[in-house]
Write a structure and sequence with these properties.
Layout: H1 4-23, H2 30-54, H3 60-83, H4 89-111, H5 122-139, H6 145-174
Family: Belongs to the CDP-alcohol phosphatidyltransferase class-I family.
GO molecular function, one term: CDP-diacylglycerol-glycerol-3-phosphate 3-phosphatidyltransferase activity
Pfam family, one: CDP-OH_P_transf
């Protein structure tokens, strides 16, 4: 049971190429099957975090691999949605830039002595849920999704700037 959360994270990483192969397959149901794969991958994210906390099996590997797997899956799906014309390119680039910079900053913070770890806050979690919702709605080509993308992009930028402010504050305290 101790390794189950990490195994779920690894499963999510394995699901990325499965999602991509499915999305780009010639099957007439490919996009709907890809959506199901994405939803299952998202459920593994919820489940691995729950199990790690419930059974007190939070690990260094999990702290690094889990958010990396989440972001990689999310960005892979967003890329395919841009490629299919379901979402705007600018939306993808904003999310990609934010997530890439946040990953790089996260790795930098872990290398500090002492390392700085910034827990996700309610705005970060809300942004993640909104990106998830945007992805789901994009698959169904819901009208008005452009306005949701604007809102989510603004939330993502606010969340990122909050992350930077927390880093600067914590860095000043620890140095």
């Amino acid at each position: 049971m101790k390794q189950l959360p990490n195994m779920l994270t690894l499963l999510r990483l394995v699901m990325i190429p499965v999602y991509l192969l499915t999305f780009y397959s010639e099957n007439s149901y490919a996009h709907m099957v890809a959506l199901i794969i994405f939803i299952l991958a998202s459920l593994t994210d919820v489940l691995d975090g729950y199990l790690a906390r419930k059974f007190d099996t939070v690990s260094k590997f999990g702290k690094l691999a889990d958010p990396f797997a989440d972001k990689l899956m999310q960005l892979s799906v967003l890329y395919t949605l841009v490629d299919a014309g379901y979402i705007a390119k600018w939306f993808f680039w904003i999310i990609l830039t934010k997530e890439t910079l946040q990953i790089l900053l996260g790795f930098f913070m872990l290398r500090l002595k002492p390392p700085i770890i910034i827990a996700a806050n309610k705005y970060g979690k809300a942004t993640t849920v909104l990106v998830f919702l945007t992805i789901i709605l994009a698959f169904f080509r819901v009208p008005g999704i452009y306005f949701l993308q604007i809102f989510v992009a603004i939330m993502a930028l606010i969340t990122f700037f909050q992350y930077i402010i927390k880093f600067i504050t914590n860095y000043r305290i620890t140095t």
